[in-house]
Amino acid sequence: xxxxxxxxxxxxxxxxxxxxxxxxxxxxxxxxxxxxxxxxxxxxxxxxxxxxxxxxxxxxxxxxxxxxxxxxxxxxxxxxxxxxxxxxxxxxxxxxxxxxxxxxxxxxxxxxxxxxxxxxxxxxxxxxxxxxxxxxxxxxxxxxxxxxxxxxxxxxxxxxxxxxxxxxxxxxxxxxxxxxxxxxxxxxxxxxxxxxxxxxxxxxxxxxxxxxxxxxxxxxxxxxxxxxxxxxxxxxxxxxxxxxxxxxxxxxxxxxxxxxxxxxxxxxxxxxxxxxxxxxxxxxxxxxxxxxxx
Length: 294
What we know:
By secondary structure, the protein is an alpha/beta fold. The protein has two domains: 177 residues, Rossmann fold (3-Layer(aba) Sandwich); 103 residues, N-(1-d-carboxylethyl)-l-norvaline Dehydrogenase, domain 2 (Orthogonal Bundle), CATH 1.10.1040. The protein is built from eleven helices and ten strands. An eight-stranded mixed beta sheet has the order 3-2-1-4-5-6-7-8. It has a two-stranded antiparallel ribbon with strand order 9-10. Strand 7, helix 6 and strand 8 form a beta-alpha-beta unit. Helix 7 packs across helix 9, helix 7 crosses helix 10 and helix 10 packs across helix 11.
């Protein structure tokens, strides 16, 4: 049975991608965020994303029809009929915790909650609801509409039925999935965050430049993007939040955030999302340029 009504919380990069993908696959979506300004920007970004897909890849579908399937709102109460909710809020526990308290009161008991998180324990989310068996981790990759694989995370209480429903839901979105057990960072980010953090240490130490580090990974390992390009795509603030969660969770010095990463986040260099990270993505730049970060 196809899931029809889906709530998507958070209209940042990941939430926008999830909402777009769902609308493209025929789902009715309610996209929730805290302000109309954020939601207006999300609508512009989705329209832009659809145009890019139509231009570079297979047809994304009719833009007007796809956008008509998304209800942009600040009202959580509109989730009272949602069959599935995907939460994509920023990686800060106090913000996420408050969201789960809200949706647990509003959504029907049968509604499944999927946490699209980089590192926070799924079992911790479940403990803040009255439906721990219906809480699952659903770690999408960016950009969501064109990435075929999703990391599914089974929390301590997640039921087999929830796993099966989540897998079917992802199939409806055109995704494959692999189920892993709950642990901070799961599989992908536990490895990726270490790689990115270490690459930033290498940059800080002056061993190689931004472009040299990325070219080595692409040329030697066949990666489509180097670790610093990947950091810009994810968002340096998200990288920092995630590595801090790993550091706190494992109490292991190998997850100590690089001071240069902290400095860049403090300076507002968050990557693609605001135009400057390890590279300059501003519209005034004729080509992507590395940014002085030392």
